[in-house]
Structures are given as C-alpha cells and as structure tokens.
Amino acid sequence: MLDTFPRAATAIVGAATYGLGEAPGFGNFDLAALASLRALALAGLKPSDVDGLGIVVMDEALSALNFAEYLGIQPRFIDNCRTGGSSFQIQAGIAALALASGQCDVMLIAYGSNQRSSAGKLVSSSRPSPWESPYRPLRPISGYALAAARHMHEFGTTKLQLGAVAVAARQWAQRNPDAFMREELTLDAYLAARMVADPFSTRDCCLVTDGAAAVVMVRADRAPALCRRPAYLLGAAHETTHREIAAMPSLTVSGTAAAAKRAFEQAHIGIADVDVVELYDAFTINTILFLEDMGFCRKGEGGPFVASGAIAPGGSLPVNTNGGGLSCTHPGMYGLFTIVEATQQLMGVCGERQIAEVDVAIAHGNGGELSSEAVLVLGSEATLSEA
Amino acid sequence: MRILILRSRSTGGYVFYPRVAEPLTGATDLEWVEPSGIGTVYSTTVIRQKPPTPDYNLALIDLAEGPRMMSRVEGIAPDKVQIGMRVKAKVIREKDASLVVFEPA
Predict the structure, then answer these.
(1) A146 and chain B: CB distance < 8 Å anywhere?
(2) Taking CB atoms and an 8 Å limit, are A135 and B71 in contact across chains?
(3) Do A146 and B45 touch (CB under 8 A)?
(4) pLDDT value of position A26
(5) Is A295 exposed, middle or buried (0-12, 13-18, 19+ CB in 10 A)?
(6) Within an 8 Å CB–CB cutoff, is residue A136 touching chain B?
(7) Do A149 and B45 touch (CB under 8 A)?
(8) Where do the structural domains in chain A lie, given as residue ranges?
(9) What average pLDDT does the segment A192-218 reach?
(10) Residues A110-145: pLDDT tens digits?
C-alpha cells in the first residue's frame, strides 16, 4: 500500500529542555515534568490539557504509566515505545497518526535523566548479549568504534576527519549558553585526548549528562492559535536493522538511509530543501555516517565533507547547532533533544546559533548500536503550500 | 573441544547465534555442524585500559560459512589486527567457561 503519512497534519507548538548538564536533586520524572511544564507553557497549556502521552526513561520499563500518574492525567492515547535514543522520533511519528485520526488532541512527548548526578556514567536499560559479553565489549562505544574502523578501511576516512566532527560540534556549543562543554576544542587537543576504543578517544564520545526535554504536538488546524511559528511534521519514518553490532548487515550503511528516503518522500522534499540538520551524534562517526545515509554527500565522502568545514558554523549545511551529543548534552537517550533543537530553529528562538530563514529542519534519532534509525522532517508555515 | 554452529537441512543456511529457526526462512530443521573455523576479520578495535591492565582486542569475524560473530584475535598485538586478515578459531577456557577466540591463520 502507498505510504499516506499525514503530511503537515500535525505540528509541534511547544519545545523545551530542562537541566542540561547537571541537575542534582531531581529524579528522572522530576526532570521530565519540569521540561514538560516549560513546553506546555509555551503553548499556553497545562498538564490537564494533555490527553496523549509518550515517554521512555532509562530505568523504568513502564515509564508512560509512571509519568501519567506523576502528571495526574489519564491519557486516552499512550506510547511507551523504547528503541533507545530513537524512541522519541518514533513516538512523534505515531503521535501524528493518533492526532490525525482523533485518538487524542494534545500529545506530550517527554524524557528526563539524572544519570550524571545519580550514576556518573551511562545507565544501561538493556541486558548484555550472552554471545558478546564474554569478549568484554565496551558497550555502546565499541560497537560504534567497530563501525568507524570499517568506514576508515572502506573509504579511507581519517582520524582528523572524525576530529572535524568533534570540533564543529564544539564550535556550535560555544554559541549555546545551555551546552555543557563550551571551552575551545582544537584539533591538536582532540588528537591528544585519551584513547578509549580505537579509533575513538574520549573526544569522539558523547557526554554523560543529566537533562530533560519535551515537545507538545497538536493537529495543524489548532497550531497557529497556540504558537506563533509552529513546526509542522512533514514526514516521519524509521528503520530497524539489528540489535547487536555483529548482526548489522553493513557497518557503513545504517537504517538512516531507508528511513530518510521514506521521510523525505512523505515530506515532498529533497536534500537541497533542508536548512538545518540535527542528528544523533553519540560518536563522531555517526555524523559522517548519517549525513552520507541521508544523501548530503555520497557514501564514503562524509569524511572530506565534514573536514571541509561544511557542517561547522558558517558552513554550507548547519549540523547539530546546539552542540550535539558530543558537546551540548547526552543524558542517556538524546533523540528528543534533536527534535527540540530542530523545532526551536524553525521557531527562530536560538539566539546566537540561530540559522537565518529556516523552513525545513531534520531531527534524527538513533537507538542501540546503530540499530534503530528514525528521521523526522519538520517544516515552517511556508512548507504547507508545497504539498 | 569442538566448535558447533547450526545449519538448516533444507536450505543449507548456517545460523549463529543458536536459535530455534533460521532467520527469514523460518526453517526449523536445524542441526549442529562443525564449521571450518576459518574466518576473516570484518572489523577490529582495541579496548584501551588503564595501565598496567593490558589493552585487548575486540573484533567482528566473518566465518567462512557466512555468519558473523563477535570475538577477539589473540597471538598478535591487539592493535596489529587488521580488517581482511584471515584467522582461525580456537577454543580457550576463561572464567570457567569455554570461549571461541581467533588467531592469525
């Protein structure tokens, strides 16, 4: 059957973060609630207006039930999808279907984590594979390191090109007062960082922070009444390829390729229409891999592309304008933060890092070890007439 | 100590890790067979440790029969393992369990 995703039938009318970096004294649901209240307030709404809820937190399998109770609501539509960091893109895509078919009227999608303050490291929410754990993989870093090593082998991608991703992310973070790491990162400092899993050093790996995010979605007809510049959902698609890295069909092509193709078709856009890309940079190779998979450069040319300065401030394609998981925040699952940043870029509220004239923004999510890839295409009011 | 993986009698397809049916075909006529033990390094990394704890290799190995598995390559410095290297399986004892590792063929 033809893909009839309801293009621009829904929109994000509120998007917010809370407690990026360190937020001691708060639990996961506290942080998610504080971000939710901010996002709802931006649309003039409160918890009692919410009748659709999506959430996942690292340490509670039934998170959506807990969070509905926390907010005091009895949602008639709920989504507890947990695919790791891509959960929120998938929830937003399903929310569009639910809103468009009248299953709910106000959808709240939230996330919160206090992992830095409570554990000081990435909190795992998945059991280790009995077929891999005897070899002591450093999950999830080693999975991505193996992908990076393979990319270097097949295409000649270099450590310096990986470094260009880290440096660009830091340069964006320096323009974001909420980013956790803002001190200058030079290529020399990048190269001098402690090795963790070849070819990765600490500076190839995302941060371990606290933080929360939330977005509020409604049907498009209601959006202008709640928000001056809504972010319309033009396309949403995801692709699952494996769970453990050994089962990934090819370590140099992720499910992002298939997901982006479908999401772009739903949205009636091509890559030339994209003004800003927020992608899930848990590791430096991710940025290279996902830009290739989405088609911003050819497969294998991601290294030279990022090293040309294209993705840094002033470059031809603004990527991860908040500083990304590498330099802004990474509280366990980062997917919702790309949605917030893409939305805020469309809303024009990003201050020093704001991109001029944003009409199409990509918010990408990644879960597991390159296992679950999801792509949202968000557009301004100007994109509504293009359908 | 032998290494055994699964193979479908009807499709001839090899299966690793062990499960009740062959992926995609769903064939359940699986039997244990001894693979050649020959493989090729598909990707490799070195997990770095705080000295004096030694660094160690982590690799993905494509078995000659088709399946890919996580393992490590021994008998060579962990950072000398290269993608495309031909390797041969052996079984070692580690932490009271048997473990399949590889060494250069």
Answers:
(1) yes
(2) yes
(3) yes
(4) 96
(5) middle
(6) yes
(7) yes
(8) 10-122+206-386
(9) 97
(10) 999 999 998 877 677 788 899 999 999 999 999 999
In the structure encoding, which two tokens stand for residue A179, read together?
A: 């980013």
- Residue A387 reports pLDDT greater than 60: no
Q: Which two tokens stand for residue B71?
A: 């393992």
Confidence of residue A386 (pLDDT cuts 50, 70, 90): low
Q: What span, in angstroms and rounded, lies between the C-alpha atoms of B74 and A123?
A: 31
Cα–Cα dist A377/A384, whole Å: 13
Contact A20, A208 (CB under 8 A): no
**pLDDT, tens only, A305-331:** 999 999 999 999 999 999 999 999 999
- Residue A120 amino acid letter: G
Chain A nearest C-alpha distance from B20 (Å)? 16
Record the pTM: 0.97
CB atoms within 10 A of CB B88: 13
Chain A contacts of B94, Cβ < 8 Å? 134
Decide which of 3.40.47.10, 3.30.1050.10, 3.40.50.300, 3.40.50.2300 is the CATH code for A10-122+206-386.
3.40.47.10
- Check A150 against B83: CB less than 8 A apart: yes
- What ipTM was reported for this prediction? 0.97
In this complex, which of B47, B70, B79 lies closest to A138 when CB atoms are compared?
A: B47
Across the interface, do B60 and A245 touch by the CB < 8 Å criterion?
A: yes
CATH of B36-105, one of 3.40.50.880, 3.40.50.1370, 2.60.40.10, 2.40.50.840: 2.40.50.840
Domain boundaries, chain B: 1-34, 36-105
Residue A134: the pLDDT is 95
State residue A121's pLDDT score.
72
A133/B contact by beta carbon, under 8 A: no
